[in-house]
TrEMBL record:
SUPFAM superfamilies for the chain: TPR-like
Protein name: N-terminal acetyltransferase B complex subunit MDM20 homolog
Protein species of origin: Gryllus longicercus
Region Disordered, annotated ranges: 280-329, 905-926
GO CC entries: NatB complex
Keywords: TPR repeat
Lineage, uppermost ranks: Eukaryota, Metazoa, Ecdysozoa, Arthropoda, Hexapoda
Compositional bias annotation for Low complexity: 280-308
Pfam name, any one: NatB_MDM20
Signal sequence bounds: none
Protein's UniProt keywords contain RNA-binding: no
């Protein structure tokens, strides 16, 4: 029998192998054919059935796949190949709970299978069912008494504490986990390092630091095999126990091994100052009093006159004194100063390279003492001297500026000018120098900007500085000729600085010529340094401000943003693209982003299972928190809502919108956004601008920006729920189904009773009122002032509010909710709100049309630069109005379908199809030509409304038709203005803005004199020849074409939506 079973198994594996191969190669049709061949020979081969289901799933036949899987589930399979194949299917349809169900059934069938129990445990891990994890792990331990299974149960208890209320976790759950581990400790059965780490985690979660320290220092600590783990863990526990003396000595010992570790230096300073605050001083520091004045009096007077802070008093001490210094705590600022000076001298003597950590630690000590109100200058010298010394030593390192950023505020305002002069003298330009000299010069320029030297410049000075920087860039290009394509060019910072100076000019004047020149500068730099993401990010922001969505999207593609960056950097582009009119590109980016967030669930579950499998218990909680952070990302929620709204807006008719909303599973009665859990995952430090402190992004600005995005999300999610509520109106679905039946040659479904419409209508009205309140709350938020491009872009909230497109939709939804309420509908209230909606839509459309015409007219005049500066706002306004008209058309379509009985709707649809056959406009015509003529007397709304319509009367139908007519006229008005903008020859006028003029040429000549002092023109000397163009003509042409193409593509996208909805509105107004 055993031999026969083995033969059957091998035959089955041989028959399944081709199916697996086709599935792995992505040829699902071939896999389906092979599976059917196998099933013809073995109809009851469960694994073949599951593989067939998998092939069907990947071919898009999810319903057939589900039926086949349910049939296999009923057979309760227990073989690994079938269960694994079913697991793959359920993971691909995002139903991990069914994986638990199949393994539960298999374990009931074979309760003694270690493999099945292990798979069941991992299935519970995927759904985060911690109690069942614990139960299954203990079953495994009873079946096979192995330590890993037991600690799976312990970790499951720890995760229950992570999710439980703090009181329950501290009082019940964590003590249970501690007792479970203590049991194995008492039995001396702890085997692995990971088990000790889990024990320490349990103790630390209960704040039992003393017990944890005993574990580290006891026999169990010997199992912590890493040479780094034990000292670091001991030091951190000592700090948590506030045993500052021991912690200070331990961190000094760690610094002896690695003097450049910044975390060690920070903790050393923390413990020293804590000792000083508590009055715990040893014999070597007994001259130090607790007060800062006494401390300063005890400093050697010669210290002030020393030329270097590194001149240590320990130079006179012998080896014994030096050795004792490492073993005794430092409990005063004086002792800290001595120790850091000793680190400086020791690192200079013993290290093969100069270490930055000890020098920065002296600056950090100065900062900490200053924050305490103590005078640190007698101890450490002037901050300007410390900073200048650091610049002199490390200016050739690209990290020098970022190292000093946090310490520049230490400079008194009165010393900044002299400090800038010293920095300039220490980092002078060397035309024949190498990369190190160039980096020193760049460092000086960046520090000068960070100290605010660019804030008070005039426009001419900014233009001269930008030209100088471009000349520096040109003259240093030879230093990067041998770089690989993946390396940053060493002279890229010149181009970045020039671009930021030009952006400053744009912010000061509001004219876009400097911004276009900045785009040209960055394009030139990107051509020679294609891997520099700093250049790409700034160019992306510049194009976005110029309203060039397609150009920004091209740069975004070059960034190759993926994985976590889709969340942390999505705010730079994904949230801005639709506002710039690039609807198709926005839809594609939304899909890519949402696929990442969807895959995060699967990938996160995989990482968790691997962590349990390999005993990496410390990583489990990290992975759980990471997945929760992604699931609660504000960008995730915003992208989800925006993608749904865009998909609904693209639907040509209300019937198709209803189908789309049904597929999205939008529940209008339920708010699915976890408002209290939403998190800000933006990485706002990625953009470098070397801005002075007054222009840097603050935590308060980020908080306000996050609040703006939250308000925007609330408005947009409510708008989506309003659309879903309109689609849920009983008559809307029935009428839509009737129209589809006519199109397919079938019969219409019977109309629902009028009484069933009351509840959905009330829901629609309630959501409209909630949306109105959300808009009022959003309008109360203050719009942020213009900020540098290294700051996060402003929220779309204020652009939408300025467009005034949300309020008409509120009034329209409220009017429709009243109109379809039934026989008791309030006609006066409906007509009042309908009039308000029509007036609001007309006003918003008029403003958008005015923006469009102004863009077309200004682009043909001398004001082309200002037109570019306003293009982004004009596109955002136009796009918001187009969206308003599109969504309003869908709301009107849903209301019309509700008010009409199915038979009348079906008749009207068939009539409209006949008229379209007779009078189909040619492709490419405008809206005016595509508009249908008013209905004849034989097809009036009054006739249709007289056919016994239950609920609203003929006046409601007339109201819908009147609103459709008003919105149709508004769509025509806007489309006409957009046609004028699109077809204007203004696009080519960008070249005049981008080309350098006389002012730039003069600035270039001046900069050439500055850079070439030997070319001084004396009396009678010939004037210097004009310099070559700083920006290649091809770059100017590239930027000009990208700006023009972006505007044209955005207008085409907006007009496409407008024309589609205008045709639908034309049908609604006459049916």
């Amino acid at each position: 029998m055993a031999a026969k079973t083995h033969v059957d198994s091998s035959v089955g594996e041989r028959r399944l192998r081709p199916i697996y191969e086709w599935l792995d190669n992505g040829n699902n049709k071939k896999a389906l054919q092979e599976a059917e061949k196998v099933l013809k020979k073995q109809p009851n081969f469960l694994c073949a059935k599951v593989l067939k289901a998998l092939a069907l799933l990947r071919l898009g036949k999810e319903e057939e796949c589900d039926h086949l899987l349910e049939a296999v589930r009923a057979e309760v399979p227990a073989d690994d190949s079938t269960l694994q194949a079913m697991t793959i299917c359920y993971r691909e349809v995002h139903r991990p709970e069914r994986i638990c169900a199949i393994y539960e059934a298999a374990v009931r069938k074979e309760p003694g299978s270690e493999e099945l129990l292990t798979h069941l445990f991992m299935a519970y891990v995927r759904v985060a069912d911690y109690k069942k994890q614990q139960k299954t792990a203990l079953q495994l331990y009873k079946l096979k008494p192995k330590n890993p299974y037991y600690f799976w149960a312990v970790m499951s208890v720890v995760m229950q504490a992570h999710k439980a209320e703090p009181q329950l976790a501290q009082g019940v759950v964590l003590p249970l986990a501690e007792r479970m581990v203590q049991k194995l400790v008492n039995e001396d059965r702890i085997e692995a390092e990971q088990e000790v780490q889990l024990y320490l985690m349990v103790l630390e979660m209960q704040s039992k630091y003393e017990e944890a320290l005993r574990v580290v220092e006891g026999p169990l600590g010997e199992k912590l095999v890493s040479y780094v783990v034990v000292p670091l863990k001991r030091a951190s526990l000592l700090m948590k126990l506030e045993r500052w003396r021991e912690a200070n000595i331990l961190y000094k010992q760690l610094l002896r091994e690695d003097m450049d570790r910044w975390s060690y230096l920070m903790n050393y300073l923390t413990t020293s100052l804590k000792l000083f605050d508590s009055g715990q001083q040893n014999g070597n520091n007994n001259t130090m009093n607790n007060s800062s004045s006494t401390a300063n009096n005890n400093i050697n007077n010669n210290r002030r006159n020393s030329s270097s802070v590194a001149d240590s008093p320990h130079e006179q001490l012998g080896d014994d004194a030096n050795e004792s210094m490492w073993r005794e705590p430092d409990s005063s600022p004086t002792a800290c100063c001595r120790f850091l000076a000793h680190l400086v001298t020791t690192s200079e003597k013993e290290s093969q390279r100069r270490l930055r950590g000890p020098y920065l630690a002296q600056l950090e000590l100065f900062r900490l003492l200053s924050d305490r109100g103590m005078d640190a200058e007698p101890l450490l010298g002037k901050p300007a001297d410390l900073l200048i010394r650091y610049v002199e030593l490390f200016a050739e390192k690209p990290c020098c500026v970022s190292d000093l950023r946090r310490f520049l505020p230490l400079l008194p305002e009165s010393e900044r000018s002299s400090f800038i002069q010293k920095v300039t003298a220490a980092t002078v330009w060397d035309p024949v120098g190498g990369v190190a000299d160039l980096q020193r010069h760049v460092c000086g320029l960046q520090l000068t900007r960070m100290l605010g030297a660019h804030l008070e410049m005039t426009e001419t000075q900014r233009q001269v500085l930008a030209t100088e920087l471009l000349l520096y860039y040109k003259k240093s290009m030879h230093l990067s000729t041998e770089n690989l394509q993946t390396e940053f060019a060493c002279n890229d910072p010149y181009a970045l600085l020039a671009a930021h100076v030009l952006v400053d000019s744009y912010l000061a004047t509001g004219h876009s010529a400097p911004l276009v020149r900045a785009a040209q500068t960055l394009e030139m730099a990107l051509e020679r340094s294609p891997s520099n993401f700093h250049v790409k990010l700034l160019l992306l922001r510049v194009y976005s401000v110029l309203g060039a969505g397609a150009a920004a999207d091209a740069v975004y593609e070059m960034l190759d943003v993926k994985h976590m960056q889709l969340d942390s950097l999505g705010y730079l582009h994904c949230a801005q693209l639709a506002a710039l009119g690039q609807l198709r590109a926005a839809a594609a980016l939304y899909e890519i982003t949402l696929k990442f967030f969807t895959a995060n669930y699967k990938d996160g579950a995989d990482h968790l299972t691997y962590s349990y499998k390999f005993g990496s218990f410390l990583k489990i909680m990290e992975f759980v928190e990471f997945c929760e952070r992604l699931n609660n990302s504000l960008h995730y929620a915003m992208t989800t809502v925006e993608r749904m709204l865009l998909e609904v807006m693209e639907c040509p008719t209300a019937a198709q919108a209803r189908t789309a909303l049904s597929g999205m599973e939008v529940q209008p009665w339920k708010d699915s956004v976890p408002w209290d859990a939403l998190q800000d995952n933006r990485d706002t430090s990625i953009l470098v601008g070397w801005e002075p402190p007054c222009r840097q992004v603050t935590a308060e600005q980020l908080r306000l920006s996050f609040g703006d995005d939250m308000a925007l999300l609330r408005v947009r999610s409510l708008l989506l729920r309003v659309l879903a509520a309109a689609a849920e109106l009983p008559g809307a679905g029935a009428a839509a189904d009737a129209k589809e039946a006519v199109l397919n040659g079938g019969d219409a479904a019977p109309a629902p009773a009028g009484a069933e419409r009351a509840a959905p209508a009330e829901l629609l009205g309630a959501l409209a009122e909630e949306l109105r309140r959300a808009l009022e709350a959003a309008a109360a938020r203050e719009a942020p002032p213009p900020r540098p491009l290294c700051s996060p872009p402003p929220s779309r909230l204020h652009l939408l509010l300025a467009a005034g497109t949300a309020q008409p939709l509120v009034e329209l939804a409220a009017a429709l909710a009243t109109a379809v309420a039934g026989p008791g509908a309030d006609r006066a209230e409906t007509e009042r709100r309908a009039a308000a909606a029509a007036d609001g839509a007309a006003a918003a459309t008029a403003r958008a049309a005015a923006h469009a015409r102004a863009q077309a007219e200004a682009a043909l005049s001398a004001e082309a630069g200002a037109a570019l500066a306003e293009r982004r706002y004009a596109l955002a306004h136009v796009g918001a109005v187009a969206e308003m008209l599109a969504l309003a058309a869908l709301l009107l379509g849903a209301a019309r379908d509700t008010l009409r009985p199915p038979a009348a709707a079906a008749t009207a649809t068939a009539s409209a199809r006949r008229q379209r056959r007779k009078k189909q406009p040619p492709a490419g015509v405008g809206l005016a030509a595509a508009a249908v003529v008013p209905p004849s007397d034989g097809a009036t709304d009054g006739g249709a409304g007289a056919e016994g319509e239950p609920g609203a009367g003929e006046w409601a139908v007339d109201c819908v038709c009147g609103l459709a007519g008003a919105l149709h006229a508004a769509a025509q008005t806007l489309d006409s203005a957009l046609d004028q903008w699109e077809t204007a020859a203004a696009m080519d006028a960008v070249a005049a803005v981008a080309a350098p003029g006389d002012e730039e040429a003069a600035a270039a000549r001046l900069a050439a004199l500055v850079l070439e002092p030997g070319a001084d023109a004396g009396a009678g000397a010939a004037p210097p020849p004009p310099p070559p163009p700083l920006l290649p003509p091809a770059t100017a042409v590239l930027v000009r074409s990208r700006l023009a193409d972006s505007a044209r593509s955005a207008l085409r996208e907006v007009r496409r939506v407008l024309q589609t909805k205008a045709q639908y509105l034309a049908q609604l107004r006459r049916v």
